[in-house]
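Archive transcription. Copying these from loose printouts into the bound notebook so they stop getting lost. Printout 1 of 2:
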Amino acid sequence: MSYVPGRCPTPTESASESSRVVLRRPASRAGRRGSRSLTTPAEVTSRLAQAVAGAGPDAPLADRLGETCRSVLGADGVAIVLAYTQPQRLTICFTDDVIARVENLQDVLGEGPCADAYRSGRTVVAGIGAGDAARTWPLFAEAALRATGPLTVAAVPVPVCGDVLGVLSAYRTGTGHPAPASGLTTHLATAVGMTLLHELDLDHAEVAAEPTGVWAGRAEVHQATGFLVARLGLSPDDALALLRARAYVADIALGEIARQVLDRAVDLAADVSPPKL
């Protein structure tokens, strides 16, 4: 993780391991755009507090956080991803298939507005289908336009005590939409970060025995990376790059190509030259 324990209140101690989050994909909901966007910090804090307090076994916290953020921003969909460009990257939630495809492409290609927001600590707004995006992230912009059509994506760093925990991304269909109000997005992202630090440890018992959901897919990426390191003599970075390249060519998620490698359904040995001794 890119945040530093010890520089925050005690909730950071319970968030020292990102694997403590249970990941579930929420169901899409019809008629969501009709909800009113919140405008004040007090309203945002109150809405997030209600989402946390109301979370139960039939309505996971991650799902409620995602839907609350979508409503606050007046967006068509959102995702929350921790440690965005790190090997331990962890998807907390995504609210629909469109934002899931956007996030998967950035994961596979290693570029895009969310990756830049995580590295820089600044909000990045991009129009998928606009010239600026194509010049800044040529691979991502082309692939995303094919996969989703024109979108406006806002990527907001989730701060924790001066460092960046992850990225909150939101999209609206079409280009040319104005950027969300900076004060609103900053407060929302900060509230999300502190909420996650308070709540990350709650589901530890559920994942301690065996990873599930999206976290299971990420665990398979780590296992496949280690498998390629051992079998092909690659560095961890090169092994992960090889997985990403094959996922991009096959147009599938990184977790899926990792699963195929572990199941011996694909052999990536032919994709690399033998290591020099």
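Printout 2 of 2:
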Amino acid sequence: MKKAILFTFLAMLTIASFNSCTKDPITPTKKDPVITWTNPVDITNGTLLSATQLNATADVPGTFVYTPALGTNLSEGANQNLKVDFTPSDATSYNTASKTVSINVTKNELLGIAKIKTVTYTTTEYVGYEVDTYQYDTQGRVTRVDFTDGVENDFETFEYPNSTTVIEKWGSDAYTYTLNATGQAIQYVESGSSTNTYYYTYDSDGFMSNGNFRVVVNGNIVSDGGTTYEYDLTKINTIGDKNMGLGFYGNDDKNLITKETNGAYIVTYTYEFDAKGRVSKQTADYSGLNTDYLVFTYTD
């Protein structure tokens, strides 16, 4: 009798132990995905981040989120962090993961330094041409511009009596600009054949305001009122006001414009470049109706 009781007790203990095990299944351990991403090669300021730099890969499928994001224009500086956050498609088997690399952003010698010497303008709309020739002081500010069309010659001069004043003179007329702390013209006084005073304001991106609803993305105006603009984000703008020593008019687009659209009005821009990567010729096609050409030379 005792043996039967002991057998029954042991059998019940075995069943209870078995039931206990089946109630606590082993949870599989998640794996960490392996992200492969090395420090990108150096870029120059004005170069927007692209898939060339943001090119991390993983050993399992998933999505990548970069910080800073694609299209960001980094300032000049060494060892700037680029981070990627990876989310695996199989969240049951794999953990999320992150990785950080660094990139050096060097000074772009084209920005604000490639001073324009001459601009030659021709068009298919009429016969003729104009050549503008620029002269500069030791600070890179324009001091004189000569204009000629092969028949008539004219010129204007620029004076800089102090850090907040620019005086532009053309014949008997004078135009005095008052600059703010960042060197932008905020007031313009005309004297001579007529007398007027104008005031300028600037948006948060440093562009001169014009009263329209303007959208700026990565240093380029992409829409302005009813007009939209497209750019070649791989090319730095070397033909803006700053490259003519006229930086007091505010910022220029960082990149070269390729298309301007306003309803049926479309202008397409193409370029040729010199050995230093600067624009040597700009062609503007006005929907095939006429074409303008600008040819540039530089002071170096």
